[in-house]
Amino acid sequence: MKKKISKNEAKEKIEKFFLEIKNKTPKEIKRIKNLSSNQKISLKGSKNLFCKNCLTPFQNNEKIRIKKESKTTECKNCGKINRFRI
Prior knowledge:
The structure is a single chain. This protein is an alpha+beta fold. The chain has one domain. It has helices at 7-19, 26-38; strands at residues 63-67, 70-74, 81-85. Strand 2 (70-74) and strand 3 (81-85) form a beta hairpin.
């Protein structure tokens, strides 16, 4: 049987994960996204740290553009453009 974790434990695990996101794989990011959605915890600003399409973490070598009220980031891995509100 799987052990259920509390909402506070899940929050701590998610915060700890995003402190060291540069070394993570897309599979680990997907697991954390599922954990946050199951526990109804929002990722807020942490969603800007990885690509929405391929889930690879941004390594500070992507193309970033800032216009008016949005920030666009082009993923070097898949070429997808991610848009975020500022």
